[in-house]
Amino acid sequence: MLIGEVARRSGVSARMLRHYESLGLVRPTGRTEGGYREYSGEDVRRVFHIESLRSLGLSLREVGSALDDPGFAPAELVGDLVRRTRERIAAETALLTRLRRIGAAEPAGWEDVLQAAALLRALGSKSAGTRQRAALASVAEEPVPVEALVEAALSETDPNVAGALRWALARSGDGGPALLAEGLGAPVAEVRKRAVRALAGIPGDGATALLRNALTDSDTAVRGCAALALGARGVADAVPALVDMVVEEVNDADAADALGALAGDPASADRIATGLAGRLADGGTGPSARRRLAQALADVPGAVAARALADLSHDEDRAVALTATYILKLRAAR
């Protein structure tokens, strides 16, 4: 079979067949009287084998080893091909994401495209300083698509950069909460906590509703972040979680401050006092927890809080009793 016929049957150009021959991958077994290459059936089968292996991503050098090396281990090469393919897919996916984000910014010209590309690249930099400057620039200069800011905020580990990203998100428009809602469903608790912190800086009912949902999160730190954020917004639904934080000594000082602020609303004051007093009635509450509860009651007005403090002033633990007595004197002097 001459080279032209092989090319038609295999789909491999005559030029590529000559290249294969120069590399020693497949050599025609004969020549015609006129000196033309003549391929045997076995030669043609080898051409098809070469193309099959190339379709898996093997280089021509790897193809030669696969076909000619008796000790060739296909499992190792296939594993390497899987790894390389995954890396290529990840790179292509990252490129596709970047292109979509640049398109979402609706650039008016190449200058806008270049600026958006530079900011997106900076957000993914290994340098924390570069990422922080990019987050700040996303507000001061050409805006970055909000989904890029959300992705960066959910993955950021540097506290300074994270703060800059949350600041940028709070000024990015209305799209942030819906995208951060996906972060609240992440399997990793740290990601969910970052989503809550980002939502805490975004005003509006949408963010508040999502923070309420986070109060039922399985992770204590996530619930605590949500409770503090809701307490700052004056949402009384956070009271039970804030009381738990006081008892469990998880950001208890911040939780007590939030309860004190919420207690400024008369409708919430009795609910807070009842919640704190209820934990005091729990026989399993130790002295240190009772002392923290007494301190939390200091800024809660009303008769319920006063009765709870009076009971604590007779506590069997001297430190608890002295704390409650001191708080009662301060309340009486107001």
From TrEMBL:
Domain of life where this protein originates: Bacteria
Full protein name: MerR family transcriptional regulator
GO function term, MF aspect, one: DNA-binding transcription factor activity
Gene3D superfamilies registered for this protein in UniProt: 1.10.1660.10, Leucine-rich Repeat Variant
UniProt keyword list: DNA-binding
Entries under PROSITE patterns matching the protein: HTH_MERR_1, HTH_MERR_2
Residue span, HTH merR-type domain: 1-69
UniProt KW Transcription regulation keyword: no
InterPro entries in UniProt: ARM-like (IPR011989), ARM-type_fold (IPR016024), DNA-bd_dom_put_sf (IPR009061), MerR-type_HTH_dom (IPR000551), MerR_fam (IPR047057), PBS_lyase_HEAT (IPR004155)
Pfam families: HEAT_2 (PF13646), MerR_1 (PF13411)
Keyword Lipoprotein: no
